[in-house]
Amino acid sequence: MVASMGMEQANHIRRYCDDNVAHFDWMEAQGVPFERSYYPDKAVFILSTEGLMSTGNEKVWPFRDIATPVPRGHQVQMAGESPGAGAMTPLLARCEEEGVRASHDSIATALIVDEAGGVAGVAIRQTGQDRYYRARRGVVIATGGFGVNREMLARYFPGLPDTAEPLGTPYTDGSGILLGTAAGAATSGMDGMIATASIYPPGQLIKGIIVNTLGQRFVAEDSYHGRTASFIMEQPGQRAFLIVDADIFAYPEITTAHHELIDGFETVEEMEARLELPSGSLARTMASYNRHAAQGRDPLFNKHPDWLKPLDKGPWAAFDISFNRSNYLYITLGGLKITSDAQVLDGKGAVIPGLYAAGACTAHIPRCGKSYASGMSLGPGSYFGRVAGRVAMGNSAPLSGAAGA
Predict the structure, then answer these.
(1) Contact between 341 and 396 (Cβ < 8 Å)
(2) Largest CA distance in the chain
(3) What's the whole-model pTM score?
């Protein structure tokens, strides 16, 4: 596992895991609220305030055989679709209390590099004027990914359909990545993406099956929505269909995904013909699935027994969940290459003195949608941002041994 992911990623994971409890405690100490409650159902996001939930592939095979499934997602105690604001408001208040100065209405235009190749400051443009700031300890880039940068998207994702939309702010334009590379920084994982147009909630739809244009299943339907999307992107024509029976029929609740209900069908054969699948393919797939589901098994993909049931109660229905026909939202996962101390590396693997980076402008810990889980942008972003500040100030000690920093 370490060899396949690279020592760099392994070091990031190890440090993040070792320090995560201390980091959680620190977040609470800054006033970020977390409710001691549990959300048991499967969801993409929740509008209530429960603080703990499963937000990835915890119960999905083969991961559940590698590590004991436990809920790993922590949501800030704030109802609504943007709980991140519940974290930023107290954190910004703490910055103000500590006298942190901010320069607003500014755009960074270049990093200032000294004769030794280190980053000594930053050039900005503010209200039409160029200004230059010398860095006392270092420069930290924390500018987000490149989801709205059309040139970068065309380079790294040339087949991205027009129906796909970036998830994030209008400023995820790759500017921080470009600032870093102009100063000699290396990048990693630039072809990585997490996309989503989830079929759930409601969770009952997970009991259906997902097939491609060959009438074949290709993923465990209880996978995290980003993992499912990554497999759909690999199918012929990027096409996929969700098949359900009368027992579990429902419309996907995330209506922005625009999964089209193709139709209802009295027979599987009628559905197969309407979807233009090879003759007999869907009937064989469903017969095999139903036979094993009745035994509580899924030998093909080991779908969790919680989501297994024979799809034998007609009529049946099919939704088009194709990557190029539904409205998939995406986050880019590649960015500046950093050490576990958040120091930016150059093309030869050497640290660029005075330059640090954190968040979605850096290469994520998971670099493809198949291994992504909700929170793997916000969590590491807040953690390595804090690491960057500490290391720039000369303190690289583990956070688990730190007090208040």
Answers:
(1) yes
(2) 75
(3) 0.92
pLDDT, one tens digit for every residue, the chain (405 residues): 444 567 888 899 999 999 999 999 999 999 999 999 999 988 888 888 999 988 889 999 999 999 999 998 898 988 766 667 788 899 999 999 999 998 888 999 999 999 999 999 999 999 889 999 999 999 999 999 999 999 999 999 998 999 999 998 888 999 999 999 999 999 999 999 999 999 999 999 999 999 999 999 999 999 999 999 999 999 999 999 999 999 999 999 998 899 999 999 999 999 999 999 999 999 999 999 999 999 999 999 999 999 999 999 999 999 999 999 999 999 999 999 999 999 999 999 999 999 999 999 999 999 999 999 988 999 999 999 999 999 999 887 777 655 445
What's the Rg (C-alpha) of the chain? Answer: 23
User: Coil, strand, or helix at residue 211?
Assistant: strand
**DSSP 8-state class, residue 173:** S
Q: Which strands make up the sheet holding 260-265, listed edge to edge?
A: 209-211, 241-244, 316-320, 260-265
The burial of 214, by beta-carbon neighbours within 10 Å (0-12 exposed, 13-18 middle, 19 or more buried), is given as middle
What DSSP state is assigned to residue 44? S
Tokens representing 380 are 């590491």
Residue ranges of E strands in 293-350:
316-320, 329-332, 335-336, 343-345
Paired tokens of 11 = 């070091």
Residues 176 and 397: their CA atoms lie apart, in Å, by 27
Q: Supply 146's token pair.
A: 């490149």
